[in-house]
């Protein structure tokens, strides 16, 4: 099998090869992930992330999503992934925006926020999660890059409302807005403040927007299971 470095390079080359079967891609990607956690350089993923082979890019995006903060060395590649035609790639690229950015990455964070209107429901849900968990300072860093975009007003609103979680009126009112983006930001706010005020989250679980209702209901069920286990 050779040295770990050589094996990592072999796996990158294998994943870049067109025509691999799904099982072979899965095995190679999982082995490469182990190599990355063992010290294989994250920057070695760049050929996959820039590949013209869609399956290679998908594998690279998944690997980046699994690295958490460890994806920071390739953060400069993420903007292109957010614009990728494959929803799978956009979805996993958002994980890097959530976990590997800093306040210096405001433009990239803004790019993630703009996907709130993505045509793919899984991508839209990941943006809601981004808005619900990313630190306020990083959201604020995105604001200068959202000027002229509806995301600027909505992100400003979310940050302002989240400072006073006991006041739920703003979140609950916008859950039934005619504007889908407003509904998604309201859902993100409900998730963001749920530890302090869970009324908006309960309302979100009953929202007429099925995507928001299912996400909120899932979060509530997961929270209830955790509470039962902790008793």
Evaluate the radius of gyration.
19 Å
Globular, elongated, flat, extended or rod-shaped: what is the shape? elongated
Q: So how many helices?
A: 14
Tally of DSSP β-strands: 0
* Helix and strand run: HHHHHHHHHHHHHH
What are the key terms here?
231 residues, mainly alpha, elongated
Structural notes for this entry:
By secondary structure, the chain is mainly alpha-helical. It has a domain at 119-231. It contains 14 helices and no strands. The protein has helices at residues 4-15, 22-37, 46-49, 54-66, 78-82, 87-100, 106-113, 121-133, 136-142, 150-162, 169-174, 180-192, 199-204, 210-230. It is elongated, with a radius of gyration of 19 Å. The N and C termini lie far apart (48 Å). The relative contact order is 0.07.
Furnish the topology, listing elements before pairings.
Layout: H1 4-15, H2 22-37, H3 46-49, H4 54-66, H5 78-82, H6 87-100, H7 106-113, H8 121-133, H9 136-142, H10 150-162, H11 169-174, H12 180-192, H13 199-204, H14 210-230
Give a brief description.
With 231 residues, the chain is mainly α. The protein has helices spanning 4-15, 22-37, 46-49, 54-66, 78-82, 87-100, 106-113, 121-133, 136-142, 150-162, 169-174, 180-192, 199-204, 210-230. Helix 10 packs parallel to helix 12 (180-192).
């Amino acid at each position: 099998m050779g040295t770990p470095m050589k094996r990592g390079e072999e796996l990158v080359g294998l994943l870049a090869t067109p025509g691999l079967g799904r099982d072979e891609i899965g095995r190679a990607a999982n082995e490469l992930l182990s190599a990355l956690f063992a010290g294989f350089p994250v920057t070695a993923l760049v050929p996959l992330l820039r590949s013209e082979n869609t399956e290679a890019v998908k594998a690279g995006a998944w690997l980046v999503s699994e690295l958490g903060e460890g994806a920071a060395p390739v953060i400069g590649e993420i903007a292109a992934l957010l614009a990728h035609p494959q929803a799978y790639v956009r979805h996993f690229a958002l994980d890097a925006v959530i976990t590997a950015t800093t306040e210096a990455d405001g433009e990239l964070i803004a790019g993630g926020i703009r996907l709130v209107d993505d045509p793919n429901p899984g991508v839209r849900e990941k943006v809601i999660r981004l808005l619900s968990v990313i630190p306020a300072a990083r959201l604020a860093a995105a604001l200068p890059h959202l000027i002229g975009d509806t995301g600027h007003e909505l992100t400003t609103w979310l940050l302002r409302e989240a400072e006073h979680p006991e006041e739920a009126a703003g979140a609950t009112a916008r859950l039934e807005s005619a504007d889908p983006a407003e509904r998604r930001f309201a859902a993100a706010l409900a998730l963001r403040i749920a530890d302090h005020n869970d009324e908006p989250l309960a309302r979100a679980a009953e929202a007429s927007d099925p995507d928001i209702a299912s996400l909120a209901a899932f979060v509530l069920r997961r929270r209830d299971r955790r509470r039962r286990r902790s008793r």
